[in-house]
């Protein structure tokens, strides 16, 4: 019988293809398409930050352009390549008059998305991050290049299609001295690489090596343009160092002609969403980088559960005061979405630097959430079965926290945020 990969390639060969989703899943599919000689015309994405931009050398067009593109290319197939919010896209396509014959869901072919947290530590202490919680149980360290190669080899032996891997979860990947070799190894295996960094690191040579390795996606996480606000939520970091490194990245992208999408991810709080945001947008425009924003959340999951259950965590309450959407407001918006199963559990496998596998990317405390201590020694089906036995998930589903964490209904969340008084004038 044909593998899923063969079926997908056979179906798409000689057809013009548009990829809906110009972030990591879409970029991974583009890499897959290139390796399999498929004819990808463009990306489509509804994120205004990406419109008209080139992502890995393909232009991103607006969803409204699809009708015209279909008229010009009657054989056109839209590949929906996103890790979440597929349903919203299908609804949109249906209202535009497209039918099941016009699109395929990449998730029907690619069963699992992998995250490998290659660094198990961070040099910053962001207020919203797991690393600031006193008494949390976790171990610190780096995944060796050798272990990383074994992980990739096992992944390839267990799934038909793996087109991208994210190299971060809680840790700071730029602290890994061999990050460039890790990315090179993915590329040698036809796999696209995603990196997310706070970029508050001193060594310029690390940035040079990173850009030379050309990860497809480089997310830069920050929360302000000026130190007075950045320091509140990115404690231990230095925004002037971050800005100088953004210039360095531009310099090295030009030098190495790297096809990396640099996505500056601005964490919104009520103290940074006006003047600071405008200045950061100007800097991104100057450097040709995308700026996307997120209504900051409190992380990890255990901390939100503690807060909801009234357990005393003074820092969470402090942080909640400057969130554009408080935990209570976010959970209220999420209550419109009742999920039958958890998307974080269903299609993701996260591997920690020490090979242990947590039930999902949202948890941090390792007491009852590790489903195997060694990814290499447990099969994918053993991992999947063990995930379904994690007790914390019952509580998490009861509180509807997966929907909260996914930030469904961004429009409504933004409306709530807009009503808040900003201190950033
Ligand atoms: C915990 S960070 C670790 C990776 C890396 N050190 C970084 O700072 O990007 C993992 C991801 O969470 C996102 N993130 C961090 N704090 C957040 C917050 N308060 N709300 C929403 N996303 C956040 C970051 O943008 C990043 O992509
Ligand atoms: S139910 Fe909650 S803890 Fe369990 S996998 Fe989903 S997000 Fe993670």
Beta-strand portion reads 15-25%
What's the β-strand tally?
15
- Let me know the largest β-sheet: 7 strands, parallel
Global geometry? globular
The average pLDDT value, as a whole number, equals 94
CATH superfamily of the largest domain: Aldolase class I
CATH class membership of the largest domain: Alpha Beta
Counting DSSP H or I runs of 4 or more residues, the number of helices is 18
| CATH topology category name of the largest domain | TIM Barrel
Strand order of the largest sheet: 12-11-10-9-8-7-13
Going by helix content, strand content and strand pairing, the class is alpha/beta
Ligand inventory: S-adenosylmethionine, iron/sulfur cluster
Radius of gyration, in angstroms, nearest whole number:
21 Å
| CA(first)-CA(last) distance | 63 Å
- For the record, the CATH architecture of the largest domain stands as Alpha-Beta Barrel
Helix content: 25-40%
Unreliable stretches: none
What key phrases describe this protein's structure?
alpha/beta; Rossmann fold; TIM Barrel; 2 domains; six-stranded mixed beta sheet; binds S-adenosylmethionine; binds iron/sulfur cluster
């Amino acid at each position: 019988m044909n593998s899923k990969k063969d079926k997908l390639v056979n179906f798409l060969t000689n057809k013009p293809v548009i990829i809906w989703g110009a972030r990591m899943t879409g970029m991974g599919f583009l890499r897959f398409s290139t390796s399999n000689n498929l004819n990808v015309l463009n990306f489509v994405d509804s994120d205004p930050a990406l419109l008209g931009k080139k992502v890995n050398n393909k232009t991103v067009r607006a969803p409204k352009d699809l009708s015209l593109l279909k008229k010009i290319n009657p054989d056109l197939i839209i590949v929906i390549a996103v890790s979440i919010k597929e349903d919203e896209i299908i609804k949109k396509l249906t209202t535009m008059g497209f039918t099941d014959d016009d699109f395929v869901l990449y998730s029907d072919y690619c069963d699992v998305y992998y995250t490998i947290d290659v660094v198990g530590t961070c040099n910053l202490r962001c207020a919203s991050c797991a690393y600031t919680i006193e008494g949390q149980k976790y171990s610190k360290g780096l995944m060796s290049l050798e272990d990383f190669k074994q992980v990739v080899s096992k992944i390839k032996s267990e799934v038909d299609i793996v087109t991208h891997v994210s190299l971060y979860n809680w840790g700071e990947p730029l602290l890994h001295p061999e990050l460039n070799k890790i990315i090179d190894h993915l590329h040698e295996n036809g796999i696209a690489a995603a990196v997310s960094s706070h970029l508050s690191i001193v060594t310029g040579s690390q940035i040079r090596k990173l850009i030379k390795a050309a990860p497809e996606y480089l997310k830069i996480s920050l929360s302000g343009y000026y130190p007075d606000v950045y320091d509140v939520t990115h404690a231990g970091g230095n925004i002037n160092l971050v800005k100088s490194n953004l210039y360095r990245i531009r310099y090295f992208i030009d030098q190495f002609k790297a096809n990396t999408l640099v996505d500056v991810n601005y964490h919104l709080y009520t103290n940074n969403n006006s003047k600071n945001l405008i200045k950061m947008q100007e800097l991104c425009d100057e450097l040709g980088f995308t700026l996307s924003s997120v209504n900051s959340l409190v992380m990890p999951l255990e901390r939100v559960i503690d807060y909801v259950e009234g357990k005393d965590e003074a820092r969470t309450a402090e942080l909640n005061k400057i969130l554009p959407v408080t935990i209570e407001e976010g959970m209220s918006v999420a209550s419109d979405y009742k999920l039958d199963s958890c998307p974080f559990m269903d299609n993701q496998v996260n591997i920690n630097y020490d090979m242990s596998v947590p039930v999902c990317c949202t948890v941090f405390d390792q007491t009852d959430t590790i489903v195997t201590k060694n990814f290499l020694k447990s099969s994918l089906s053993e991992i999947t079965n063990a995930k379904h036995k994690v007790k914390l998930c019952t509580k998490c589903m009861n509180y509807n926290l997966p929907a909260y964490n996914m930030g469904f209904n961004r429009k409504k969340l933004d409306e709530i945020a807009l009503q808040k008084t900003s201190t950033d004038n």
